[in-house]
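cache lookup: miss for this entity combination. No prior model stored, computing from scratch. Input as submitted by user K.M.:
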Amino acid sequence: MKHKMKLYSEPYLKVLEGSKTIEMRLNDEKRKLIHCGDIIEFENIETQEKLKCVVLKIVAYPSFKELYEACDKLSIGYSEKETANYEDMLSYYSKEDIQAFGVLAIHICKIECVTPKLLVDYGICPTCFNKENHNCLYGDISDKLIYLDEKIECFFAGNPRAPGHTIISTVKHYKDMLEAPVDVVLYVYAFAHKMMNIIKEIYQCESVYLCTMCDGPMNHFHIQLIPRYAKEERGSKNFVKPRNNYVYDKEKLLQFQSLLKEKN
Ligand SMILES: [Zn+2]
């Protein structure tokens, strides 16, 4: 979800340069709509410039006093030489409103500084985030996309461990196979079975290895299909072969799509 907020030049520039990482607002009805992973577009009231930030964490406090005690002054927009006084916020909000609603520390990061690791650290799924935000993390995958329906998508790995390394991912978020309903798991594996045969046929590899990880709080259920070629040794080392750059091969992509149609 996207939100809009206005800022004066001084705080705007501090967000822009990266020192201010917490935006403070009343915890009113409008702000209750903000969630982790959402985007806030800040507009500089004085110049109309705009910048986009990702919400990483939201912490509620009874008033600015507690918020100021908990947060570093630079992170809430003060400079080293300034004294942070929570009563400064009375120039934006009335005592009555602060008392009635409470306040929020909205932890933010400029969208261009966001990495998959940072999102995972804050419990935000990078895969879902990427989808909701025009592939801003992983880039456009139209040159890798083999198949898409309402349940799954299948695409070439962007950093393959072998030519033909393919990923099948659920459209909906499940953190791993344990969390996915059994009908979805069966659907994914039936599709994987079909894909493994197609990979073998197209790439003439000796075998295709399948793995999925249930390793963290904020994964996105996907399985990997990694070919092993005749010249390569058998065994689990195939799961961790060095990664390479994906090379777009239009002919292979079309071959996959036509074989998938045939096998349907
Ligand atoms: Zn997800």
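stored under new cache key. The first strand starts at residue 2 and ends at 7.
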